[in-house]
């Protein structure tokens, strides 16, 4: 078992880094979108065939109610469309609309550059090491769940 004081120190630094990174990323989200809305659009951009609300809930680690509200607002903005799933009257698949696809085709490369800029103070080898360490931590925590 690791030193509890060291573990607490790492936890606090992770929280602070997360908060600072989140603040900067929120400032850079396109237009009038919120970060959760951007996250839903980014997931749908990576999944051109669309996703069910349950798939979005699992991918984003949020509640179904949050996804429902976000999708409703994005639909109102004309950025996503709901399509019925053949053979299941209750199921729906959410996809980017043409307008949503155009927005994300522009926003994703800019987001990638913005995040790169935020991590630029770390040399590439340290960033790689941080990624690997966090990956190991995530894997071990998921194994416990």
Itemize the secondary structure elements and their pairings.
Layout: H1 4-27, H2 35-46, H3 53-60, H4 64-76, E1 80-85, E2 88-96, H5 98-119, H6 124-144
Antiparallel strand pairs: 1-2
Helix pairs in contact: 3-4
Could you describe the 3D structure shown?
This protein is mainly alpha-helical and 145 residues long. The protein has a single domain (4-144), classed as Orthogonal Bundle (Arc Repressor Mutant, subunit A). The chain is 69% helix and 10% strand. It has six helices and two strands. It has a two-stranded antiparallel ribbon with strand order 1-2. The radius of gyration is 18 Å and the shape is globular. The mean pLDDT is 93.
What characteristics describe this protein?
Arc Repressor Mutant, subunit A, about 140 residues, mainly alpha, globular, single chain, two-stranded antiparallel ribbon
> From the alpha-carbon coordinates, what is the Rg to the nearest angstrom?
18 Å
How many runs of DSSP E, i.e. beta strands? 2
Q: Which secondary-structure class do the elements indicate?
A: mainly alpha
Q: Note the run of SSEs as H and E.
A: HHHHEEHH
Q: What CATH architecture would you give?
A: Orthogonal Bundle
| Spatial separation of the terminal alpha carbons | 18 Å
Mean pLDDT: 93
């Amino acid at each position: 078992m690791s030193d509890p004081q060291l573990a607490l120190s790492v936890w606090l630094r992770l929280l602070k880094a997360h908060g600072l990174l989140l603040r900067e990323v929120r400032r850079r989200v396109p237009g009038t979108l919120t970060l959760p809305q951007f996250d839903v659009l980014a997931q749908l951009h990576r999944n051109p065939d669309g996703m069910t609300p349950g798939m979005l809930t699992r991918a984003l680690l949020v509640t179904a109610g949050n996804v429902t509200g976000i999708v409703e607002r994005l639909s109102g903005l004309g950025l996503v469309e709901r399509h019925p799933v053949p053979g299941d009257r209750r199921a729906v698949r959410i996809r980017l609309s043409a307008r949503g696809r155009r927005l994300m085709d522009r926003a994703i490369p800019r987001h990638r550059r913005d995040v790169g800029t935020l991590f630029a103070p770390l040399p590439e080898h340290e960033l790689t090491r941080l990624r690997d360490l966090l990956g190991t931590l995530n894997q071990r925590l998921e194994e416990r769940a």
